[in-house]
């Protein structure tokens, strides 16, 4: 056995012993589970996947009665009234219930085991949302270095790594940087969110992204303020096209 093989074997052995002593439980409902997703199958099935109709620009789920057609393209109220510099944004599920809890477990409690369930969601739904063959680079929405020190990781980068690994798309973790420390978006309304992130991001080196197609990755799309600002900065730095992916789409009242 090589050194690496021994380390892997030891890791699997320790994991097996720990699973025997402390059987894995679903992080949401606490039920004993046999899979390694961090979620039981029942909770996984409760994730509210976004289906048509949804806004063809930002991906927000729409009720049939809300669908507004311009040249047969359904758009939400926000996208009818605001220019979106990205090609389109898509999310896998609604920011509620199990998916919301999963994101909180990862983001605020550091439960990285939940990334196994996230990877399964990506496997099941990502290729149906994006033209994978067109994407040159995956770029996570960055955290300011102070916030990164506080949290210890960037959840958007962890999600971006899953996409990069699964589809063989190069990951650029350091090209887009957050250069201004801002208030947490979760406490702000729509207008405050837009103002909060204005000029908060910058491209460190545009050689990589010049004339390339970029997939911007974050955990949640709410007003789109962060995604729009990051897309603007990437486009100004020379990116040909910017798509945006988030795990979930939240909806603020208009």
Label the structural class.
Answer: alpha/beta
Task: Tell me the number of helical segments per DSSP (H or I, 4 or more residues long).
Answer: 9
Low-confidence stretches: none
CATH topology: Rossmann fold
Beta-strand fraction estimate = 15-25%
DSSP, total strands = 9
The succession of helices and strands, N to C, reads: HHEEHEHHEHHEEHEEHE
Approximate shape = globular
Describe this protein's structure:
The chain is of the alpha/beta class and 254 residues long. It contains 9 helices and 9 strands. The chain has helices at residues 3-21, 41-45, 77-81, 97-109, 115-125, 145-151, 155-167, 190-197, 225-236, and strands at residues 68-70, 73-75, 89-94, 137-140, 170-171, 176-178, 201-203, 213-221, 241-249. The protein is globular, with a radius of gyration of 19 Å.
Q: What is this structure's SSE topology?
A:
Blueprint: H1 3-21, H2 41-45, E1 68-70, E2 73-75, H3 77-81, E3 89-94, H4 97-109, H5 115-125, E4 137-140, H6 145-151, H7 155-167, E5 170-171, E6 176-178, H8 190-197, E7 201-203, E8 213-221, H9 225-236, E9 241-249
In short:
Helix 5 (115-125) crosses helix 7. 37% of the residues lie in helices and 17% in strands. The chain is built from nine helices and nine strands.
